[in-house]
Amino acid sequence: MGTEGVEALFQECRTRVQDERAAAGARGLPVVVLVGTRGSGRTTVLEWLGFLGSHRPHALYDFASAGPRRPHEVAGRLAYGLSHRFARQPALLFPRLTLGLLVVDPGLSLDAHDSRRAGNQLRHALYDAHEHTVAADRAAEVADLLQDLNLLQIPGIGLLAGLIRRPPRMPLGIARRTGFSWYAGPHTPLHELVALNQLSKSPTDADRAAVDRRLCEAFLADLRGEFARRRRDRNCVVLLDNIDAPGGRGFLDLLVQLREASGAPDPLLAVATASDAGKVPGPFAPGPAGVRVRTPEQASYADWERSVPDPPPDSSWRWYCVQLRDLTAGEVSQLGAGLADRLPEVPPLVHRLTRGHAWSAHRLLEAAAHIPGRGGGEELLRGILSLPAPPAGDDAEPVTGPEPPAEPEPLGRAVLQGLLEDLTEEQRAALAACSAAREFDAACDTDLLDAFSLRTRNSLARETGNRLWLTPAVPQDAGARGGRGSGYLRDAHPRPLSAHPVLHPWLRLLLLEELARSSARWDEVHELLQDWHARHGHPLDVLYHALARGRLDDVVGHLARSLTDLPGTDAWLYELYAVTAAPLRAPVLPEQTATLRVDRLAEELAPISFAAPDRRALTMLVTALWLAGDPRNRMPAARPELNDTISSMFQSLAMHSDPRRVGLRHEAAKYV
């Protein structure tokens, strides 16, 4: 779901098979990199693209699970996948790469002083490779290659029969004739191959890089040769998962270098994934990731081609970065269609909480499937993040023995650990502290991180931005509180909030829950942020953190004064929504509706304003909007809780506010 633009880009690039006559001056194909937060479904999308292209040459390689390998070793494994014979498709042959892989095999040493003897050694090695069928070696080789390529994850691959020897099987005549002649250079092909064999034994980085370059050149030359020999209707595809793992960039960097050096397009579409956008060397762009990133809806070959500068200053233009988006409310509803009849509130609640984060939505829907539809089902839904996390699988065995089973982890905490699995404990603690700030930059600018190590202070902002956990700020208005419309107050205030990026709302909600586990820590962090904003002249943020600390009387007092001091209703509404977007330490209790809690919370936190007849409606309004800003307090979906209270309080406020009557009544209508 949500990948239509990626699929269209994939199909468009696959069908751009270059004709020799049209190759001159052609841009070729980009290296497409799918980026996204952890759990955004990058691997799933890659496997889906493999399924779409399963009737043409393709191969999948996961750099995270295969272990570090040199570029020429990756090229060799991809060649195995691409050389598989597909129905009604001539098999791709790799004579140049085959011969090169044989020559650099650690078990082969060619005589550098006797050409005749070296030729005989090479001939026997080719023959032995062709005839080698020892069952034990064959099984080990197949298992090793399948693990590296993850081929079984692509439906219909069926490659077992083809992976029986190293290098790939082909007629000896082709390996000798085509492969041998390609290695001719300043010296004869045999001398060049002997030199390559000698380089492969060298421990120096320069010699190892020369071997990688020569064999990857052979890989691309074989592909160009095969497409020149037989016309094909699709480019071949390599799907490279987790290129930010060791070895991933090494292979792709070399591929891009070879394309730059040759200038001629090749028939290879590389689609990769990465969770760290900072490791994608695309063109620079403003924003936390620092690289030009497109959405699936923006992505196309023409968009990539238009972005190429003329002339290109470097090779960064060959990379095309596409960020997978979160699921829409409709797409989450499709995922939760099986629950809609029994618990109709589940899909919209899951989307409000996760903002469509794919893996998290799956986890919450899975947990909701265990909630009964009657007798307390709605009450359990209110506290869904506190429910025990479901087991890893339905067939998980119960723990038995003298020790009592450990308490299951709350769902929210289990999801948070999954999202931040690749961060250190200290980075997670620092991120939880930063979640208290409205904007992530403000948290990093304060003294909030002084208690952490220098490495964490220096890396946290970069890591968070590179991993795409920072998003544009959401306009605060009725649209963010269960009303209708959004963005209509954007230019209403004389001193609006800055538009710096914010933490992804779902990640921030989970981090705030972690911060709220310690009341003292919650107050300490918000007080520090409040003082910092006061020193720098940010009155709305001062009130924002005051409300987070429960200083409701202070907030109501300010808003009562500004209702008449500000030049218009929209400016006052801007302040109202900006302040009541403050985080809530604890949501509505599962056994208590949000509506019932408004009165109690208002009386508890603002005893002075609540007791004053002229401020009671405003106190109730601020409290209701504050509660409504938390997605955990927004049921049912058809008419979110607290809408009646908010609308009534706007109407009551309008009755006693001569200069603001009409505007407040219009705002009340947004909650009807």
Written account of the structure:
By secondary structure, the protein is mainly alpha-helical. Helix content is 50%, strand content 5%. It contains 31 helices and eight strands. A six-stranded parallel β-sheet has the order 2-3-4-1-6-5, sandwiched between helices. Helix 12 (301-306) links the parallel strand 5 (293-294) and strand 6. It starts with a helix and ends with a helix.
Give the topology, please.
Elements: H1 4-14, E1 31-35, H2 42-52, E2 58-62, H3 63-66, H4 71-82, H5 95-103, H6 115-131, H7 135-149, H8 172-182, H9 189-200, H10 205-229, E3 236-241, H11 248-262, E4 268-274, E5 293-294, H12 301-306, E6 319-323, H13 329-335, H14 337-340, H15 346-354, H16 358-368, H17 377-382, H18 411-419, H19 425-434, H20 440-445, H21 454-466, E7 470-471, E8 502-503, H22 505-515, H23 519-535, H24 539-548, H25 552-565, H26 569-580, H27 594-605, H28 607-611, H29 616-628, H30 643-655, H31 661-669
Parallel strand pairs: 1-4, 1-6, 2-3, 3-4, 5-6
Antiparallel strand pairs: 7-8
